[in-house]
Amino acid sequence: MMDNFTLQSLKKDFGTYFQQYCLHHKILIKxxxxxxxxxxxx
Length: 42
Hints:
Layout: H1 4-14, H2 16-24, E1 29-31, E2 37-39
Antiparallel strand pairs: 1-2
Organism: Apis mellifera (Honeybee)
Protein name: Telomerase reverse transcriptase
GO molecular function: RNA-directed DNA polymerase activity
């Protein structure tokens, strides 16, 4: 599960539809120390 900070950043940067898509399909996205999004379950 993604933390709230990552979820809000994802929504801000990519929109609500993409955020909901990731949640629905259980796509786990994290942010690294450079604030880049990393898909961790590929």
